[in-house]
Amino acid sequence: MFDNDLWLCFPAGRSVHPVDFNTHATNTIYIIVNLFITATPIWPYHFVHTLVFTLTYIAFSGIYHAAGGTNALDREYIYAVLDWHQPETAGLYAFLCGVVLVLVIWFLLFGLYHVRVAIYRATRSSDDRKRIASQEMATMEEGIGNLAYSGDGDTKPGVTS
Asked: Which helix (H) or strand (E) holds 5?
């Protein structure tokens, strides 16, 4: 059951081609490593970008099929689960993978983001946390000051050149 449910794109007995690995697994590994080594925040509403891309890809696969496109093995589909000769099955997989799975993956990434933040906070000393908080406050106040200034000169008030 596990093999049939999880490995829908890789049926039993089929080996993984290096191109498939580089296309899918390498990107996944990169995203997870990048999540932990950068300070980019992840928020739940960011999933919208992936959802739009996924829905666009699903539409593309249908158009590609209708136009007579083939995959590398000269079959009339890009992935076996997106074989539009069987529209009910293709539509079901497109919805499950394209909508439900995207949401699940994004919330897993959101959880990993919180793990990263917790690790960061746990490894900082009290003095570091105070210094970082004061820097963030100064940056925020400077940003608010820049928004409040609406003069037409070349410099901000109080700044001489």
From this structure: helix 2-6
